[in-house]
Amino acid sequence: ISVGTNLLIGSDLERLKSELENISAGKFKKGTVPPFWDGRTAERIVADLEAFLS
């Protein structure tokens, strides 16, 4: 993952623990804003799910 701040952890619980400790210590991935990002993805997903389920 080269854009944004997400991390792909997988099922490695030790890596998850390590990354959570890093985040708590203020050591987290500095990312750039993805192209076309508007911060409203969750709203669109909820609207689509509501339409699909109704």
Quaternary structure type: single chain
Order of helical and strand elements: HH
Beta-strand proportion: under 5%
User: Mean pLDDT, as a whole number?
Assistant: 92
Can you give the helix content as a percent range? 40-55%
Q: Specify the overall morphology.
A: extended
Radius of gyration, taken over Cα atoms and rounded to an integer in Å: 15 Å
Total beta strand runs = 0
State the domain count: 1
Low-confidence stretches: none
Major sheet: none
Structural class: mainly alpha
Individual helix count: 2
| First-residue to last-residue Cα separation | 35 Å
Describe the protein.
This protein is mostly helical and 54 residues long. Helices cover 46% and strands 0% of the residues. The protein is built from two helices and no strands. It has helices at residues 13-24, 41-53. It is extended.
Give the arrangement of secondary structure elements.
Blueprint: H1 13-24, H2 41-53
List keywords for this structure.
2 helices; 54 residues; mainly alpha; 0% strand; extended
Q: How is this structure best summarized?
A:
The protein is mainly alpha-helical and 54 residues long. Helix content is 46%, strand content 0%. It has 2 helices and no strands.
